[in-house]
């Protein structure tokens, strides 16, 4: 059996993805003790997991240090890396939306958009004919309209609780997001049997 290296985000996606792998019949420990270890090896299955930041998963896969990755569609849309998207796992579902203070219109000249998704935001506003200035932030994006840093934010919405608790309303629904199984194009050819087996087994567990 050939070795398979899988890059996974450490946070939300990990638990759901791990659960799916267990359900797909992979011989993994039922519980993974979340330590500070960034690499988990499962010799019985010849699988190694690399635990990464969500935005870094496609980087590992594109460079081939991971054969397979699990990444949010938000990350894939933002980065456009050379990887194959093999399967929609339909986990960690959410969406990307624009939001702002209620009953406000955007400034007529170069409205400011705060986001951690500059490419998605630029493409969206270009598509609707708006020339915007992007203000890139790394988190707590919802602060930006409240403190006068931006007219709108472009961010992930899941339950809508963060928007609500910060007095913001949603304006435009931009893209649906769920986690995808991705592969390095060379690994996909060289390890096709193993990767195909993984896809077939996971496909049966997609809800
Ligand atoms: N409410 C949510 N907020 C953020 N990401 C979400 C949410 N719901 C689902 N996701 C998905 O989960 C991914 C984030 O995964 P994860 O939880 O591992 O990261 P995080 O811990 O939020 O990120 P970071 O390490 O950058 O703080 C996103 O790319 C997105 O696809
Ligand atoms: O609709 P909700 O269920 O409230 O979820 C959406 C929030 O969750 C994410 O933030 P995260 O918790 O990742 O923190 P961050 O501010 O560091 O990005 C996202 O950026 C929103 O702020």
Automatic annotation (TrEMBL):
<keyword id="KW-0028">Amino-acid biosynthesis</keyword>
<comment type="function">
    <text>Catalyzes the condensation of ATP and 5-phosphoribose 1-diphosphate to form N'-(5'-phosphoribosyl)-ATP (PR-ATP). Has a crucial role in the pathway because the rate of histidine biosynthesis seems to be controlled primarily by regulation of HisG enzymatic activity.</text>
</comment>
<dbReference type="InterPro" id="IPR013820">
    <property type="entry name" value="ATP_PRibTrfase_cat"/>
</dbReference>
<keyword id="KW-0328">Glycosyltransferase</keyword>
<dbReference type="Pfam" id="PF01634">
    <property type="entry name" value="HisG"/>
</dbReference>
<dbReference type="InterPro" id="IPR001348">
    <property type="entry name" value="ATP_PRibTrfase_HisG"/>
</dbReference>
<comment type="subunit">
    <text>Heteromultimer composed of HisG and HisZ subunits.</text>
</comment>
<keyword id="KW-0067">ATP-binding</keyword>
<keyword id="KW-0808">Transferase</keyword>
<keyword id="KW-0547">Nucleotide-binding</keyword>
<comment type="similarity">
    <text>Belongs to the ATP phosphoribosyltransferase family. Short subfamily.</text>
</comment>
<dbReference type="InterPro" id="IPR018198">
    <property type="entry name" value="ATP_PRibTrfase_CS"/>
</dbReference>
<protein>
    <recommendedName>
        <fullName>ATP phosphoribosyltransferase</fullName>
        <ecNumber>2.4.2.17</ecNumber>
    </recommendedName>
</protein>
<dbReference type="GO" id="GO:0003879">
    <property type="term" value="F:ATP phosphoribosyltransferase activity"/>
</dbReference>
<comment type="pathway">
    <text>Amino-acid biosynthesis; L-histidine biosynthesis; L-histidine from 5-phospho-alpha-D-ribose 1-diphosphate: step 1/9.</text>
</comment>
<keyword id="KW-0368">Histidine biosynthesis</keyword>
<dbReference type="InterPro" id="IPR024893">
    <property type="entry name" value="ATP_PRibTrfase_HisG_short"/>
</dbReference>
<keyword id="KW-0963">Cytoplasm</keyword>
<feature type="domain" description="ATP phosphoribosyltransferase catalytic">
    <location>
        <begin position="53"/>
        <end position="203"/>
    </location>
</feature>
């Amino acid at each position: 059996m050939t070795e398979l290296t899988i890059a996974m985000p450490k946070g939300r996606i990990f638990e759901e993805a791990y659960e799916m792998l267990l359900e797909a019949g992979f011989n993994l420990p039922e519980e993974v003790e979340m330590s500070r270890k960034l690499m988990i090896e499962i010799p019985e299955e010849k699988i190694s997991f690399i635990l990464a930041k969500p935005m870094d998963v496609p980087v590992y896969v594109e460079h081939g240090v991971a054969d397979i990755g699990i990444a949010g569609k938000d990350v894939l849309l933002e980065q456009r890396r050379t990887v194959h998207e093999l399967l929609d796992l339909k986990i960690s579902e959410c969406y990307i939306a624009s939001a702002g203070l209620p009953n406000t219109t955007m400034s007529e000249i170069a409205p400011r958009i705060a986001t951690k998704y500059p490419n998605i935001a630029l493409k969206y506003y270009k598509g609707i004919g708006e020339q915007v200035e992007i203000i890139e932030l790394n988190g707590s994006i919802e602060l930006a309209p409240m403190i006068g840093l931006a007219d709108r934010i472009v961010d992930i919405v899941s339950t809508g609780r963060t928007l609500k608790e910060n007095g913001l309303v949603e304006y435009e629904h931009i893209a649906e997001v769920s986690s995808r199984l991705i592969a390095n194009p060379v690994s996909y050819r060289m390890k096709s049997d193993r990767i195909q087996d993984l896809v077939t087994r996971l496909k049966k567990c997609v809800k």
